[in-house]
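dumping these here so i dont lose them again. two proteins, back to back, each one seq then structure tokens. dont judge the mess
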Amino acid sequence: MHPIIFFSRMDFSQSNLFGYIEDLQELTIIERPVRRSLKTPEEIERLTVDEELSDIERAVYLLSSGQDIQGTSVVANLPALMRQNPAETLRRVLPKIREVLHVAGVEMQLTAAVSFLTVLQEESVSIHTYSHSFLHIILQNLEHRDAGVSNAWLETLLAVIEALPKETIRHEILNPLVSKAQLSQTLQSRLVTCKIMGKLANKFEAHIIKREILPLVKSLCQDVEYEVRTCMCRQLEHIAKGIGTELTKTVVLPELVELARDEGSSVRLAAFETLVNLLDMFDADDRSQTVLPLVKSFCEKSFKADESILVSLSFHLGKLCNGLYGIFTPEQHLRFLEFYKKLSTLGLQQENGHNDNQLQLQTLEQEKKYISVRKNCAYNFPAMIVFVDPKNFHLELYSIFFCLCHDPEVPVRYTMAITFYEVAKLLNSGVYTIHKELVTLLQDESLEVLDALVGHLPEILELMTNGGENSGSESKLLSIPDLIPALTTAEQRAATSLKWRTHEKLLQKYACLPHIIPSDQIYYRFLHRMLTIILTNNVLPVQKAAARTLCVYLRYNRKQEQRHEVIQKLIEQLGQGKSYWNRLRFLDTCEFIMELFSKSFFCKYFFLPVLELTHDPVANVRMKLCYLLPKVKSTLKIPTDKHLLQQLELCIRKLLCQEKDKDVLTIVKRTVLELDRMEISVDAFQKRFYENDLLDQEKERQEHLLLEMEQLEKEKQQNEGRSTNINDKMFEKKRKFVYLFTCCLCKEDKKSKLVRSQSFSTQALHPKYSNIDKCPNKSSATGYTSSVSGMGKSCMLSFSGK
């Protein structure tokens, strides 16, 4: 055996590598006998079960004489046994489980709690049978010494309470709670009682709650243990909603006031959070005379107390300020606003340089809480805009907005990116004041922040473009010179990262840019970048996202010369590219072209380049083309595109006769059948294609309008300096017309996509098409041609008739 020696630098030469392998092999040989000796023959014999036993008998046997792991397996399988044979399971298996649970370990207890809940949810038995068989077992294990087990059984019981009838709840659960709430009971028992009380409040009428539940609630609110008081305080919200406004005012509110002054900080915190959640149930007098003084006292003492109170306070501050808005005096309004501002910058002015290690550790823990406070302030920022009124944003809150967007911690900036859209909506016509922060977040060093912002980027940019609801509808973001560099930087940073989903999402959202940025800027700064991504990126979803966005940019491009250049590059670099992967992406791009452009546009520029791929040397490309051919055929109109139909028929013939790949040939035959069933639309409208043809006509009209727009712009430039009032009016009319169609395009595209998906739904094959062979003779090769030609003639006749 070679000795194993650890060097400072490992030598991976061939001779040494074989030495290491031999060492590893010898180590595995030494280990094998140890693994074999894990189970003795006696243990294996003990674990062996007769295969002829039924599921019920096997379960009873394993619960009676098996090991814990086998018993746990039976308990986990209880829902399946209940589905198969509920009567026998209840009669034989469940009593055994009940016996075993008395001495069972934690794992079996947790498994049983989950299985009992599953049986309830699956409704394997009636609720009466369930309460008779399972409820007592749940209640027996509710006070297990292990807190995790006790909580698991409690969750099961709370779910059962939702389904149980009132009488059963009253006799089996409510009545025993009177003794369980006594001080003589264990702490765990009283905590469980508190949580059950909160659940029962929604099951009974108010008078029953007042008579039987509220006395127990008061007793638990005054318990000697702060854990019980805290737990009961958090249940008061559920109890208040169960008893109504009047009883809440007379019973719950006094208890909350007393708990808010408790000596325990956790009790005071629970009372504060419950008060905030119940604000809607209190009238103006209760809010001004009772709630507001408590809240003011709580806020004043928060900085002197534990920072965890600040975390909760900062989270609820937005809801609190707006809930008490109507009763604030101007002085109180200003005081709460200043308190929010103070929380928003908490910890940023602190100096953390301490030499003592213990102080450094305390400072780190404190800094984490300060970060949570600022994050909560960012979460509440839209609510605070409502609190101060959007008109006063720049004066009162802009400085805080700036600080939060430039916060040194990622979670804070991430939260601001999420809320940015809400802020923009609230500001409306004043949205221009936050454009610099938009650029800042787009250039953020964290991709998490960028990902959060991009979710609503189209809506944000649209708001900034329109300047709110009351501004002009056609202005571009010329007032933000840094926007385009920020957008390009964001895309490049996402592209160089490993988070391809963020990159994909970004590219999808960038499809909105033609509504925001002028056509020339799109062409020079974004369109060619999309083509580069398609050609060089290695992630398929990213390539597809770039391809679709490129097609959108092409759709809105206003210069015919630029459009022709892009189309030529798509055909040469993708459709005729050396890499088969690029040719596959060309077919993906053609799908997007068919979705976004009119049929005539696709037929004019892409129909023949697509058909050329029938001769592609790679089988995967030919196969993908075959899948695409039905969509390609749907773009044809007779008689205008009769020559293209003939080219399609010729390509199908060649594929049937010359295809050598077995898989491709199978797809070709299937595609032929689908093509043979398809009907070709005619130039005139038909009822069956009316909606589809109408959408296509709108797209074609937009494409013509873009051409006319370009021509008018050229004429205007040529006639510059002359009196061209008539041309100016015509130009303005066309420009507005183009823009109106442009705004509606997104809705039309979605509708068009739905219509196409319905029209291409697969139908059952006719028996006469079940035997298609690989071009055995001339007549079989022309079968598709004859059927399509016949269909074309019938379409032409109907067209001429119209």
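---- next one ----
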Amino acid sequence: MRQNPAETLRRVLPKVREVLHVAGVEMQLTAAVSFLTILQEESVSIHTYAHAFLQVILLHLEHRDAGVSNAWLETLLSVIEVLPKETLRHEILNPLVSKAQLSQTVQSRLVSCKILGKLTNKFDAHAIKREILPLVKSLCQDVEYEVRSCMCRQLENIAQGIGTELTKSVVLPELIELSRDESSSVRLAAFETLVNLLDVFDADDRSQTILPLVKSFCEKSFKADESILISLSFHLGKLCHGLYGIFTPDQHLRFLEFYKKLCTLGLQQENGHNENQIPPQILEQEKKYISVRKNCAYNFPAMIVFVDPKNFHMELYSTFFCLCHDPEVPVRYTIAICFYEVSKLLNSGVYLIHKELITLLQDESLEVLDALIDHLPEILELMSTGGESSVQENKLSSLPDLIPALTAAEQRAAASLKWRTHEKLLQKYACLPHIISSDQIYYRFLQRMFTIMMTNNVLPVQKAASRTLCVFLRYNRKQEQRHEVIQKLIEQLGQGKSYWNRLRFLDTCEFIIEIFSKSFFCKYFFLPAIELTHDPVANVRMKLCCLLPKVKSTLKIPADKHLLQQLEMCVRKLLCQEKDKDVLAIVKRTVLELDRMEMSMDAFQKKFYEKDLLDQEKEREELLLMEMEQLEKEKQQNDGRPMSDKTFEKKRRDTKTPTTLPKNIPISVPGPSGTSTPSTSKEVKKSKLIRSQSFNNQAFHAKYGNLDKCPSKSSTAGYTPSVSGLGKTSVISLTDDSFRTRNASSTPTSFSPSPSLPSTSRTGSSVDPKSSGSKDTQPRKATLKSRKSNP
């Protein structure tokens, strides 16, 4: 049909028709799917399709095999969607009158019910009333309960096609009658259809007709089959929402008590029997009870709305507690999925469910943990910021078990074989800088990330730990700790004995380029990265070659001319000395890519404007973190007491400063000339502290999620130029110069790198690049000497 539809219809289709009369189940199923594919691909026009295929489909609708019959029915229902009205009337609706008669088989009448439900969307209300509704009424009164149930489930589609008035006068009476049917499956179908049509009926119909039916159904449900309870528990949230506003206080309380009873259904029947000794019917009943409680957990957010979040503690907290501690995993899994919705609804009352969060984090089932961590950052943010000021003030003390629970959850995930859960959890931990203090992250989580990177055997888990560690480093507020982490990365990974660790170092470098500013990467990681061009393992050199374009994109000319020269020298050595043919092939491709790259300049360039602004913002945030640490130290010395994290968090929230400032807004700092008076200096420091405190909240409030947008930007050849021409005034623009080496007299302590760290600080354009290069790279040469002597 794709290649030659005309000849296929003329020569092949007749043969297919002949074979289908005697074909087996597999061929029938294949033909049904094939006919549907031809329709979906629009291989022929609708008119041609109807002429060639419609009669074949109709012919096999009543195949003796139920699976085959359903396959042809699905194809027909899809065809009905696109057929013109006249074709539907003559080819499908008219024959349906005879097919729906009691004289026809049950299967034929069941097929007629489903076709009628589909046809109502294709005709106007007048035609439906005249031609379709008589058939619908007839099938609703059918002698077979399967037919009545099937037709009842199609009444929702029919109601949508005939409008509100006809629904009230025709569909509602049928539903009322079917809700009193002798068959439980018919009553259940009527109940579910009524719930789905609640929006169609007005308040009078709901209060006078539907509410009594629902009450009767709920009262009889415990005496009936448990399958009715399963359906009732699933639709209870929608039911309470649809009938909200027409309940009397007594009815409201009854429905709430009914829900609470369903939440604990089956838990009271404790027995000490071995599972093998329990009769099969009791086991089957317990499975149904588990399904009921699972559905109650699914509807819990709707029930919070039903009782009003203000009444949660009094009305629903005990029920929530039971669901979180339910003995069955499916129930706890479902409530873990709903936990974020519950947190949002409670808003200022979210502190009420702190203990349940810890309980689910400590759950023995990893399925429950996996469901909870999908929205863990949002939940923790609500926990830490939701509520009144008193709650905010004590946000860390109100969750004393949070950090142990998080670490225990990670260790359980690490000890299991479910590495995807472990990877997801490590990715979500990137939100922690916004939740707990920098010191808590440093002492409780950061070393664990190192351990995972060094010892875990699953590559995606190692990469997730590496990226999260980079986020922790990005928002660490102590320079000494930052330098220690950087040194560990370089010594234990970049210069590690295992080639696997050196590969992970290159992954980390890629994350550093993505998350940090270009200046930061060049200062600490540029030389350790390109040093791996001398690595004895081909895989490491190969990976480095693939990374080189990103490494080059961090350079700016002329400030980084000396680094560019070192990069070019390493590439030349690879071209001349590389013996591995695979590495050499990648080197040659990389050289071509490096040659095509345009270098970023210190001045803004139009083509890189957005990327330059992004990088400038990163540099500004890094600078403010350094300033904040320095000013906190000075404040502690002046006041004689340390600033607690609690106090700092409160001040940080109280200060509102936009995250993104226009690049032409100057930021006051003590000028290098040292001419500022003491009083002016104090004012300047005070303003810097306020701005720094504000930044630490606002910068991360864009959330670590902003970092996910960076790869596409930082991996290209976009650069952030610095604004040249620092004057003698004490006002500078926050640009790339933030990380450049100053004179010793003008450099704040927060800028001075650790003596043990290799550093390639950038110099201003007024300094000779050659002299600055030799000066800055001198410490690095000392550390590289031993490795270069034994390549």
